[in-house]
Write a structure and sequence with these properties.
disordered C terminus; disordered N terminus; 50% helix; mainly alpha
Amino acid sequence: VRHAGSKKGDSMSLTRDLVRLIREKPVTGNDLGSAALFVLDTLACALGAVNSEPARMLRAVAPPEGSDTARRAFWLGGIAHILEMDDLHRGSVTHPGSVVVPAAWAIAEERNLGGRAFLKSVLAGYEACCRVGMAVGKEHYRVWHNTATCGPFGSAMAVAELIDLSEDKAVWALGNAGTQSSGLWQFIETGAMSKHLHTARAAESGVLAALLAAEGFTGAEEILEGEKGFFAGLCPDPLPGAVTAEPDRPWELTRTSIKPWPCCRHTHPAIDAALELHRQLNGAPVSHVDVGAYQAALDVCDRPMPQDPYSAKFSLQHCVAIALAEGRVDQASFDADARGRMVGERAKVALSVAPGIDRAYPASWGASVTVTTQGGRALTVSCPEAKGDPENPVTAAELSDKARGLLVSGGMQEAAARSFIDAVLGLADDRPVRSLGLFPKSTQSAHRS
Protein backbone atom coordinates (compact mmCIF):
# COMPACT_ATOMS: atom_id res chain seq x y z
CA VAL A 1 0.00 0.00 0.00
CA ARG A 2 1.54 3.30 -1.08
CA HIS A 3 1.53 6.16 1.39
CA ALA A 4 -0.89 9.00 0.77
CA GLY A 5 0.26 11.54 -1.78
CA SER A 6 2.84 9.40 -3.53
CA LYS A 7 2.75 8.79 -7.23
CA LYS A 8 4.95 6.98 -9.68
CA GLY A 9 7.45 9.24 -11.36
CA ASP A 10 7.34 11.77 -8.51
CA SER A 11 7.64 9.96 -5.19
CA MET A 12 7.24 6.21 -4.96
CA SER A 13 7.98 5.53 -1.33
CA LEU A 14 8.44 6.88 2.15
CA THR A 15 12.16 6.24 1.90
CA ARG A 16 12.44 8.37 -1.25
CA ASP A 17 10.46 11.15 0.44
CA LEU A 18 12.76 10.86 3.45
CA VAL A 19 15.90 11.13 1.32
CA ARG A 20 14.50 14.22 -0.38
CA LEU A 21 13.43 15.80 2.88
CA ILE A 22 16.89 15.36 4.36
CA ARG A 23 18.70 16.65 1.29
CA GLU A 24 16.50 19.73 1.09
CA LYS A 25 17.01 20.79 4.72
CA PRO A 26 19.36 23.77 5.13
CA VAL A 27 22.45 23.37 7.31
CA THR A 28 23.63 26.34 9.34
CA GLY A 29 26.86 26.93 11.21
CA ASN A 30 24.96 26.43 14.45
CA ASP A 31 23.74 23.05 13.20
CA LEU A 32 27.31 21.98 12.51
CA GLY A 33 28.38 23.19 15.95
CA SER A 34 25.59 21.18 17.57
CA ALA A 35 26.58 18.11 15.57
CA ALA A 36 30.19 18.46 16.77
CA LEU A 37 29.00 18.44 20.39
CA PHE A 38 27.02 15.24 19.85
CA VAL A 39 29.96 13.64 18.09
CA LEU A 40 32.14 14.54 21.07
CA ASP A 41 29.61 12.97 23.43
CA THR A 42 29.48 9.74 21.43
CA LEU A 43 33.25 9.39 21.06
CA ALA A 44 33.82 10.14 24.74
CA CYS A 45 31.29 7.45 25.69
CA ALA A 46 33.11 5.01 23.43
CA LEU A 47 36.64 5.82 24.57
CA GLY A 48 35.53 5.87 28.20
CA ALA A 49 34.53 2.22 27.81
CA VAL A 50 37.48 1.09 25.73
CA ASN A 51 39.14 -0.87 28.54
CA SER A 52 35.99 -2.61 29.76
CA GLU A 53 35.49 -6.35 29.45
CA PRO A 54 32.70 -6.08 26.83
CA ALA A 55 34.99 -3.81 24.79
CA ARG A 56 37.75 -6.41 24.99
CA MET A 57 35.38 -9.02 23.60
CA LEU A 58 34.21 -6.76 20.77
CA ARG A 59 37.80 -5.95 19.87
CA ALA A 60 38.77 -9.62 19.84
CA VAL A 61 36.12 -10.35 17.21
CA ALA A 62 36.12 -7.03 15.33
CA PRO A 63 39.58 -5.44 15.74
CA PRO A 64 39.66 -1.83 14.53
CA GLU A 65 43.22 -2.41 13.33
CA GLY A 66 41.82 -4.35 10.37
CA SER A 67 41.11 -2.94 6.91
CA ASP A 68 37.36 -3.59 7.01
CA THR A 69 35.56 -0.23 7.29
CA ALA A 70 32.22 -1.80 8.18
CA ARG A 71 33.83 -3.86 10.93
CA ARG A 72 35.48 -0.73 12.38
CA ALA A 73 32.03 0.87 12.51
CA PHE A 74 30.84 -2.30 14.30
CA TRP A 75 33.57 -1.98 16.94
CA LEU A 76 33.05 1.73 17.57
CA GLY A 77 29.26 1.38 17.61
CA GLY A 78 29.48 -1.43 20.13
CA ILE A 79 31.74 0.31 22.60
CA ALA A 80 29.81 3.60 22.36
CA HIS A 81 26.83 1.99 24.07
CA ILE A 82 28.58 0.12 26.90
CA LEU A 83 28.50 2.84 29.57
CA GLU A 84 24.82 3.75 28.99
CA MET A 85 25.80 7.41 28.73
CA ASP A 86 25.22 8.00 25.01
CA ASP A 87 22.52 10.36 23.75
CA LEU A 88 18.79 9.66 23.52
CA HIS A 89 16.10 11.00 21.16
CA ARG A 90 12.81 10.89 23.07
CA GLY A 91 10.29 10.90 20.23
CA SER A 92 11.89 7.89 18.55
CA VAL A 93 13.23 6.23 21.74
CA THR A 94 16.57 5.74 20.00
CA HIS A 95 20.23 6.32 20.82
CA PRO A 96 21.21 7.73 17.41
CA GLY A 97 24.76 8.79 18.25
CA SER A 98 26.07 5.31 19.00
CA VAL A 99 24.93 4.12 15.56
CA VAL A 100 25.27 7.11 13.24
CA VAL A 101 28.57 8.57 14.45
CA PRO A 102 30.57 5.29 14.26
CA ALA A 103 29.36 4.57 10.71
CA ALA A 104 30.09 8.08 9.48
CA TRP A 105 33.42 8.22 11.33
CA ALA A 106 34.66 4.96 9.85
CA ILE A 107 33.97 6.15 6.30
CA ALA A 108 35.19 9.73 6.82
CA GLU A 109 38.46 8.61 8.38
CA GLU A 110 39.08 5.91 5.78
CA ARG A 111 38.49 8.40 2.93
CA ASN A 112 40.22 11.32 4.66
CA LEU A 113 37.19 13.61 4.49
CA GLY A 114 36.81 17.03 6.08
CA GLY A 115 34.91 17.77 9.25
CA ARG A 116 32.10 19.75 7.65
CA ALA A 117 31.10 16.96 5.27
CA PHE A 118 31.29 14.52 8.15
CA LEU A 119 29.09 16.65 10.42
CA LYS A 120 26.53 17.16 7.65
CA SER A 121 26.34 13.40 7.25
CA VAL A 122 25.80 13.03 11.00
CA LEU A 123 22.87 15.46 10.82
CA ALA A 124 21.41 13.41 7.96
CA GLY A 125 21.90 10.14 9.81
CA TYR A 126 20.22 11.36 12.98
CA GLU A 127 17.32 12.64 10.89
CA ALA A 128 16.74 9.28 9.20
CA CYS A 129 17.10 7.23 12.39
CA CYS A 130 14.85 9.49 14.44
CA ARG A 131 12.13 10.00 11.82
CA VAL A 132 11.81 6.26 11.22
CA GLY A 133 11.85 5.75 15.00
CA MET A 134 9.01 8.21 15.52
CA ALA A 135 6.93 6.21 13.04
CA VAL A 136 7.20 2.74 14.60
CA GLY A 137 4.49 3.28 17.24
CA LYS A 138 4.53 2.48 20.96
CA GLU A 139 3.94 -1.26 20.65
CA HIS A 140 7.15 -1.84 18.67
CA TYR A 141 9.22 -0.91 21.72
CA ARG A 142 7.70 -3.63 23.89
CA VAL A 143 9.65 -6.32 22.00
CA TRP A 144 12.04 -4.51 19.67
CA HIS A 145 14.91 -2.23 20.66
CA ASN A 146 14.30 0.89 18.53
CA THR A 147 17.98 1.81 18.34
CA ALA A 148 18.75 -1.55 16.78
CA THR A 149 15.81 -1.59 14.37
CA CYS A 150 15.79 2.06 13.31
CA GLY A 151 19.52 2.66 13.63
CA PRO A 152 20.49 1.03 10.29
CA PHE A 153 18.42 3.65 8.45
CA GLY A 154 20.46 6.36 10.17
CA SER A 155 23.87 4.84 9.55
CA ALA A 156 23.00 4.09 5.93
CA MET A 157 21.79 7.65 5.32
CA ALA A 158 24.92 9.13 6.89
CA VAL A 159 27.19 7.04 4.70
CA ALA A 160 25.05 7.73 1.63
CA GLU A 161 25.70 11.44 2.15
CA LEU A 162 29.43 10.97 2.72
CA ILE A 163 29.96 8.93 -0.43
CA ASP A 164 27.57 11.10 -2.46
CA LEU A 165 25.06 8.47 -3.54
CA SER A 166 22.45 9.41 -6.11
CA GLU A 167 18.84 9.56 -4.96
CA ASP A 168 18.07 6.09 -6.33
CA LYS A 169 21.13 4.59 -4.67
CA ALA A 170 20.36 6.30 -1.37
CA VAL A 171 16.88 4.74 -1.50
CA TRP A 172 18.44 1.33 -2.18
CA ALA A 173 20.77 1.86 0.78
CA LEU A 174 17.80 2.53 3.07
CA GLY A 175 15.98 -0.47 1.64
CA ASN A 176 18.86 -2.79 2.41
CA ALA A 177 19.38 -1.14 5.80
CA GLY A 178 15.76 -1.81 6.71
CA THR A 179 15.87 -5.46 5.74
CA GLN A 180 18.74 -5.91 8.23
CA SER A 181 16.77 -4.35 11.10
CA SER A 182 16.71 -6.45 14.25
CA GLY A 183 17.33 -6.32 17.99
CA LEU A 184 15.14 -7.83 20.71
CA TRP A 185 14.72 -6.82 24.35
CA GLN A 186 15.02 -10.38 25.69
CA PHE A 187 18.64 -9.74 26.71
CA ILE A 188 17.51 -7.52 29.55
CA GLU A 189 15.93 -10.41 31.49
CA THR A 190 19.38 -11.70 32.44
CA GLY A 191 21.53 -8.60 31.88
CA ALA A 192 23.12 -10.15 28.78
CA MET A 193 25.50 -8.05 26.66
CA SER A 194 23.39 -8.06 23.50
CA LYS A 195 22.55 -4.36 23.73
CA HIS A 196 26.13 -3.52 22.73
CA LEU A 197 25.73 -5.86 19.75
CA HIS A 198 22.60 -3.94 18.75
CA THR A 199 24.44 -0.67 18.19
CA ALA A 200 27.45 -2.42 16.69
CA ARG A 201 25.34 -4.23 14.09
CA ALA A 202 23.19 -1.18 13.36
CA ALA A 203 26.29 0.87 12.57
CA GLU A 204 27.85 -1.90 10.50
CA SER A 205 24.63 -2.69 8.63
CA GLY A 206 24.25 0.88 7.42
CA VAL A 207 27.82 0.98 6.14
CA LEU A 208 27.31 -2.28 4.25
CA ALA A 209 23.97 -1.13 2.84
CA ALA A 210 25.37 2.15 1.51
CA LEU A 211 28.58 0.66 0.10
CA LEU A 212 26.56 -2.05 -1.66
CA ALA A 213 24.22 0.59 -3.09
CA ALA A 214 27.25 2.43 -4.47
CA GLU A 215 28.02 -0.73 -6.45
CA GLY A 216 24.48 -0.83 -7.83
CA PHE A 217 23.13 -3.37 -5.34
CA THR A 218 19.40 -2.62 -5.22
CA GLY A 219 17.18 -2.45 -2.15
CA ALA A 220 13.42 -2.43 -1.58
CA GLU A 221 11.89 0.95 -2.49
CA GLU A 222 8.93 0.48 -0.13
CA ILE A 223 10.87 -1.11 2.73
CA LEU A 224 8.86 0.88 5.29
CA GLU A 225 5.24 0.80 4.09
CA GLY A 226 5.25 -2.26 1.81
CA GLU A 227 2.92 -5.18 2.47
CA LYS A 228 5.91 -7.26 3.54
CA GLY A 229 7.97 -4.37 4.84
CA PHE A 230 9.23 -2.95 8.11
CA PHE A 231 5.93 -1.60 9.45
CA ALA A 232 4.00 -4.75 8.50
CA GLY A 233 6.52 -7.07 10.12
CA LEU A 234 7.63 -5.21 13.23
CA CYS A 235 5.10 -2.52 14.08
CA PRO A 236 1.55 -3.27 15.36
CA ASP A 237 0.63 0.44 15.50
CA PRO A 238 2.85 2.34 13.04
CA LEU A 239 2.55 6.07 12.33
CA PRO A 240 3.82 6.32 8.72
CA GLY A 241 3.12 10.03 8.49
CA ALA A 242 5.75 10.70 11.15
CA VAL A 243 8.51 9.86 8.67
CA THR A 244 7.95 13.08 6.74
CA ALA A 245 5.97 15.23 9.18
CA GLU A 246 6.95 18.89 9.62
CA PRO A 247 9.88 18.86 7.21
CA ASP A 248 10.89 22.40 8.15
CA ARG A 249 11.31 21.83 11.87
CA PRO A 250 14.85 21.88 13.31
CA TRP A 251 17.19 18.95 12.69
CA GLU A 252 16.32 16.01 14.95
CA LEU A 253 19.88 16.05 16.29
CA THR A 254 19.07 19.37 17.98
CA ARG A 255 16.00 17.72 19.57
CA THR A 256 18.12 14.93 21.08
CA SER A 257 18.99 14.64 24.78
CA ILE A 258 22.40 14.26 26.43
CA LYS A 259 22.66 11.81 29.34
CA PRO A 260 24.40 12.97 32.54
CA TRP A 261 23.89 9.67 34.42
CA PRO A 262 25.36 6.27 33.35
CA CYS A 263 22.10 4.31 33.28
CA CYS A 264 18.94 3.81 31.25
CA ARG A 265 17.42 7.13 30.20
CA HIS A 266 14.03 5.98 31.48
CA THR A 267 15.44 6.29 35.01
CA HIS A 268 16.76 9.84 34.58
CA PRO A 269 13.71 11.99 35.39
CA ALA A 270 13.18 9.97 38.57
CA ILE A 271 16.89 10.34 39.42
CA ASP A 272 16.65 14.12 38.98
CA ALA A 273 13.63 14.21 41.29
CA ALA A 274 15.35 11.95 43.82
CA LEU A 275 18.50 14.08 43.86
CA GLU A 276 16.42 17.16 44.62
CA LEU A 277 14.63 15.27 47.40
CA HIS A 278 18.00 14.19 48.82
CA ARG A 279 18.82 17.88 49.23
CA GLN A 280 15.43 18.65 50.80
CA LEU A 281 15.55 15.69 53.20
CA ASN A 282 18.87 16.80 54.64
CA GLY A 283 19.50 13.38 56.16
CA ALA A 284 15.98 12.66 57.44
CA PRO A 285 15.29 8.89 57.32
CA VAL A 286 12.79 7.67 54.70
CA SER A 287 10.10 5.08 55.32
CA HIS A 288 8.50 4.86 51.86
CA VAL A 289 9.05 6.10 48.29
CA ASP A 290 6.43 6.31 45.52
CA VAL A 291 7.58 6.76 41.92
CA GLY A 292 5.07 7.72 39.23
CA ALA A 293 6.24 7.21 35.65
CA TYR A 294 5.06 6.22 32.17
CA GLN A 295 4.33 2.62 31.20
CA ALA A 296 7.39 2.13 28.98
CA ALA A 297 9.67 3.06 31.89
CA LEU A 298 8.07 0.35 34.03
CA ASP A 299 8.19 -2.16 31.18
CA VAL A 300 11.97 -1.78 30.92
CA CYS A 301 13.05 -0.66 34.40
CA ASP A 302 10.87 -2.37 37.00
CA ARG A 303 13.70 -4.41 38.55
CA PRO A 304 13.51 -4.48 42.36
CA MET A 305 16.41 -6.91 42.85
CA PRO A 306 19.15 -6.28 40.25
CA GLN A 307 21.87 -8.92 40.40
CA ASP A 308 24.57 -7.26 38.29
CA PRO A 309 25.70 -3.75 37.30
CA TYR A 310 23.83 -3.78 33.99
CA SER A 311 20.53 -4.80 35.57
CA ALA A 312 21.01 -2.11 38.21
CA LYS A 313 21.33 0.49 35.46
CA PHE A 314 17.88 -0.62 34.30
CA SER A 315 16.34 -0.60 37.79
CA LEU A 316 14.19 2.37 38.75
CA GLN A 317 14.16 1.06 42.30
CA HIS A 318 17.94 1.03 42.54
CA CYS A 319 18.52 4.34 40.75
CA VAL A 320 15.98 6.19 42.90
CA ALA A 321 17.18 4.55 46.11
CA ILE A 322 20.83 5.43 45.62
CA ALA A 323 20.09 8.96 44.42
CA LEU A 324 17.96 9.54 47.52
CA ALA A 325 20.41 7.93 49.92
CA GLU A 326 23.74 9.19 48.58
CA GLY A 327 22.93 12.26 46.49
CA ARG A 328 24.95 11.14 43.49
CA VAL A 329 24.81 8.65 40.62
CA ASP A 330 28.00 7.52 38.87
CA GLN A 331 29.56 4.32 37.57
CA ALA A 332 30.31 3.12 41.10
CA SER A 333 26.62 3.43 41.98
CA PHE A 334 25.94 0.11 40.25
CA ASP A 335 28.75 -2.13 41.49
CA ALA A 336 28.32 -4.98 43.97
CA ASP A 337 29.01 -2.83 47.03
CA ALA A 338 26.45 -0.24 45.99
CA ARG A 339 23.84 -2.87 45.22
CA GLY A 340 24.46 -4.40 48.63
CA ARG A 341 24.12 -1.05 50.41
CA MET A 342 20.79 -0.39 48.71
CA VAL A 343 18.99 -3.68 49.44
CA GLY A 344 16.88 -2.16 52.21
CA GLU A 345 16.42 1.17 50.44
CA ARG A 346 15.22 -0.44 47.20
CA ALA A 347 12.55 -2.32 49.14
CA LYS A 348 11.00 1.02 50.12
CA VAL A 349 10.45 2.06 46.47
CA ALA A 350 7.06 1.42 44.85
CA LEU A 351 6.42 2.08 41.14
CA SER A 352 3.18 3.02 39.41
CA VAL A 353 1.98 4.51 36.13
CA ALA A 354 1.07 8.18 36.49
CA PRO A 355 -1.69 8.82 33.91
CA GLY A 356 -0.65 12.37 33.03
CA ILE A 357 3.00 11.44 32.68
CA ASP A 358 2.07 8.38 30.62
CA ARG A 359 -0.07 10.44 28.23
CA ALA A 360 2.82 12.83 27.63
CA TYR A 361 5.20 10.02 26.61
CA PRO A 362 7.19 9.82 24.32
CA ALA A 363 7.17 13.57 23.61
CA SER A 364 8.03 14.06 27.28
CA TRP A 365 9.81 11.60 29.55
CA GLY A 366 8.80 12.56 33.08
CA ALA A 367 8.55 11.21 36.60
CA SER A 368 7.22 12.15 40.01
CA VAL A 369 8.80 10.97 43.26
CA THR A 370 7.16 11.23 46.67
CA VAL A 371 9.01 10.32 49.84
CA THR A 372 7.43 9.80 53.24
CA THR A 373 9.81 10.27 56.14
CA GLN A 374 9.79 8.20 59.29
CA GLY A 375 8.36 11.26 60.97
CA GLY A 376 5.36 11.20 58.63
CA ARG A 377 6.32 14.15 56.43
CA ALA A 378 5.60 13.76 52.68
CA LEU A 379 7.72 15.51 50.05
CA THR A 380 7.08 15.38 46.29
CA VAL A 381 9.21 16.48 43.34
CA SER A 382 8.01 16.19 39.76
CA CYS A 383 10.37 16.28 36.81
CA PRO A 384 8.67 16.65 33.39
CA GLU A 385 12.01 16.90 31.59
CA ALA A 386 15.26 15.32 32.69
CA LYS A 387 18.57 17.12 32.79
CA GLY A 388 20.02 17.03 29.28
CA ASP A 389 16.69 17.29 27.47
CA PRO A 390 16.39 20.18 24.98
CA GLU A 391 14.08 21.96 27.46
CA ASN A 392 16.63 21.44 30.26
CA PRO A 393 19.91 21.23 28.36
CA VAL A 394 23.44 20.63 29.45
CA THR A 395 25.70 23.50 28.45
CA ALA A 396 28.64 23.11 26.09
CA ALA A 397 30.92 23.46 29.11
CA GLU A 398 29.03 20.75 31.02
CA LEU A 399 29.20 18.43 28.02
CA SER A 400 32.95 19.04 27.70
CA ASP A 401 33.37 18.26 31.40
CA LYS A 402 31.43 15.02 30.93
CA ALA A 403 33.60 14.12 27.93
CA ARG A 404 36.82 14.91 29.79
CA GLY A 405 35.79 12.71 32.70
CA LEU A 406 34.93 9.81 30.41
CA LEU A 407 38.15 10.12 28.41
CA VAL A 408 40.30 10.22 31.53
CA SER A 409 38.45 7.25 33.06
CA GLY A 410 39.16 5.37 29.83
CA GLY A 411 42.90 5.88 30.28
CA MET A 412 43.61 9.16 28.47
CA GLN A 413 45.85 11.72 30.14
CA GLU A 414 44.19 14.97 31.19
CA ALA A 415 46.09 17.11 28.67
CA ALA A 416 45.43 14.63 25.88
CA ALA A 417 41.74 14.59 26.77
CA ARG A 418 41.50 18.35 26.53
CA SER A 419 43.30 18.33 23.17
CA PHE A 420 40.99 15.62 21.87
CA ILE A 421 37.92 17.63 22.90
CA ASP A 422 39.25 20.71 21.10
CA ALA A 423 40.00 18.64 18.01
CA VAL A 424 36.51 17.16 17.85
CA LEU A 425 34.89 20.56 18.26
CA GLY A 426 37.24 21.80 15.52
CA LEU A 427 35.50 19.55 13.01
CA ALA A 428 32.97 22.35 12.53
CA ASP A 429 35.86 24.40 11.08
CA ASP A 430 36.50 21.58 8.57
CA ARG A 431 39.35 19.91 10.39
CA PRO A 432 40.05 16.57 8.62
CA VAL A 433 38.51 13.63 10.46
CA ARG A 434 41.63 11.53 10.01
CA SER A 435 43.69 14.10 11.91
CA LEU A 436 42.14 12.87 15.15
CA GLY A 437 43.67 9.42 14.63
CA LEU A 438 40.90 7.39 16.23
CA PHE A 439 41.81 4.31 14.19
CA PRO A 440 45.43 3.16 13.69
CA LYS A 441 47.06 4.81 10.67
CA SER A 442 47.96 1.42 9.20
CA THR A 443 44.29 0.78 8.46
CA GLN A 444 43.73 3.97 6.46
CA SER A 445 43.77 4.01 2.69
CA ALA A 446 45.21 6.75 0.56
CA HIS A 447 41.76 7.36 -0.93
CA ARG A 448 40.60 10.95 -0.73
CA SER A 449 37.20 12.06 -1.92
